[in-house]
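I have been asked to look over a protein record a colleague put together. Alongside the sequence sits a line of tokens, each denoting a local backbone shape. I have pasted the whole thing underneath without changing anything:
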Amino acid sequence: MISNNIKIFSQNVWKNNLIMNTILKVKANFDIVFIQEPSWSTICSIPSSRNCEEEFLVSVVNYSNWLTFAEAKNDYPRVVIYINIRLFSLFFTLQRHHYYRDILLVSFFNNNDVFWLMNVYSNSSHLALKYLKNTEGYIRNLLIMTRDFNICDSLWDSLFSHYSSISDDLIIITDSFNLELPISTNQVPTRYSNNMNDSNLVINLIFLCSGSSELDNHLIYPN
């Protein structure tokens, strides 16, 4: 395994560049940062080989001390992964095929083996989960799958009294990847409502490689 001190941070930034910039500056002691719903913006205009007019280069926030992994597609995916450059020697690579726009899969090498990280944004229609369920394939050595699954369920929220059938699909998917849901060291909501009449929710989840001793706990930061 790469390290027993690896630090991973994950957050939905709601297309807010200020939050993204703050995370990448303040969380510089982290090794890996998973972002959901990043802000895509025009960086500059570039010459085009296809027409006489210039094209616009659109990207997410970039920092020199972070390796940025994102797919700059026309529909602007809602997931991005940042890898601290101190892990550069592990040869991180973006998997560009076979996965849905809001599923980002990154591989890296360690001790002559390949390991994987997966960042997921599954909307209220659960499109990313449906894609994973309907796509045959097995990823060996998937270390972590996180984060926005938009499923309220008593399985992971003790204050929520109902069961969601879509949870079955999520558990089937994580079992196929040999992942399990760890218990956080603090039980707090992962999404806080702006409306006082609505309940706070636990809908952002982290699934870790079963039996992992290196990635055996996580902390949820209050909003």
Q: What stands out?
A: The CA atoms of residues 143 and 212 lie 8 Å apart.
